[in-house]
Amino acid sequence: MDALYTAVATATHGRDGRAVTSDGKLDLQLSPPVEMGGNGEGTNPEQLFAIGYAACFAGALGVVGRQAKVDVSDAAVTGEVTIGKQGEGFGLAVTLRVELPESVDQATGRKLVEQAHQVCPYSNATRGNIPVELVVE
Description:
The chain is α+β, with helices and mostly antiparallel strands.
């Protein structure tokens, strides 16, 4: 891989601590969600993963849309990251809900979403490791 950028962040005290990026632009209190026994007052890793994946996928959709000369600049991607028990440990699953502009027909939109799934770095990192469901709305 020809690296273009490296993000650096440090987390202390696990899910009930703090996370800070090296440039200081992100400084978050972390806490488990209420559903997992936490107080829910901070951000949790699944929320951060959902944000990152949704933003990256929206960027990939923009790239394939421009290549196909289809305006998807008003598309919205919602990431849902689920954590649950899996064997002796825990596992993740992702649903990406893609809301396309009304000007994009369903068949074209589905094709662009599938293409974005092939080029998105998060999709490439998760492929074959966790289930990812694509929902075109």
